[in-house]
Amino acid sequence: MLLLSRLALFWELSSAVALAFYTLQPHIILAKWGANTVVGWGMLVGGLVFSFIHPPWEIEGHWSFTTYAGVIFIILFGTLIAFYFYLESLRYLSASETSSLSSAEPLSAAFLSMIWLGVTFDFGQWIGAFCIISTIFILSAKKKDVKKIKEMGC
């Protein structure tokens, strides 16, 4: 039995709406300006707006070289490059395929937590992992079938 607080349900549904929005909305902008410009302006505007909420120049705690390197790595690879690749993939894949494939990211994080942190999966988590992986394979097989039908001239 799954128990969720109302606040957790609100944030889960909000996250789903946000994923749908940023997957479907940027097609016109991406076609006109490209992923470089869209991601660049999005990161700049988002960073400027967020700096009024939490100013980046007010750093708390002790920051070492390792801390700075980790933050820079997360900004570049975990945010900037990852989101750029996601938007760029919309040129080659449909929105439904892209959003389904993006569901593999938390799955890979869960598998890595099993390997590195010793976290164990229960039965429900294994079923969820199976559903994510099978969805990806179904979408892949569907795309191949459509391609074969088009090649046959039907």
Task: List the keywords.
0% strand, 2 domains, 79% helix, mainly alpha, 7 helices, 154 residues, single chain
Description:
The protein is mainly alpha-helical. The protein folds into 2 domains: 21-93, no CATH class; 103-154. The protein is built from 7 helices and no strands. It has helices spanning 6-24, 27-33, 35-53, 65-89, 95-102, 104-117, 123-151. α1 (6-24) crosses α5 and α3 (35-53) packs across α4. It is globular, with a radius of gyration of 20 Å. The chain starts with 5 loop residues before the first helix and ends with a helix. The model has no long low-confidence stretch (mean pLDDT 81).
Q: What's the number of structural domains?
A: 2
* Structural shape: globular
Report the average pLDDT across residues.
81
Identify low-pLDDT runs: none
Give the beta-strand count.
0
What fraction, in percent, of the residue positions are helical?
Answer: over 70%
How many helices?
7
| Major sheet size, sense and barrel closure | none
Present the secondary structure layout:
Elements: H1 6-24, H2 27-33, H3 35-53, H4 65-89, H5 95-102, H6 104-117, H7 123-151
Helix pairs in contact: 1-5, 3-4
Please provide a brief summary of the model.
The chain has 154 residues and is mainly α.
